[in-house]
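Problem 12. The chain below contains 79 residues. Write out its predicted structure in token notation.
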Amino acid sequence: MTVTVLDAALALPSNERAELAERLWESLPEVKLDTKFAEELAGEIASRRDRYRRGESRLHEWSDVRSELDAIIDRADRP
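Solution.
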């Protein structure tokens, strides 16, 4: 992958990046996984996608999520 393609994808609005990610995932050749975890993960992804499409949830910018996670880690590291 070229940096140009990645940069173009990252410049898309959140909803378009989510759609692109979904379409890329769906374009991958079928891989048979024999683990229950993979099935549960696929179900969770489908459930979250459906809730988003129904307007029951919203996307969050990665930078915001990362900042919140960093704050949680910082608090956990304090004595």
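Discussion. Helices lie at 3-10, 14-27, 36-53, 62-77. Students who got a different answer should revisit the alignment rule from Section 12.3.
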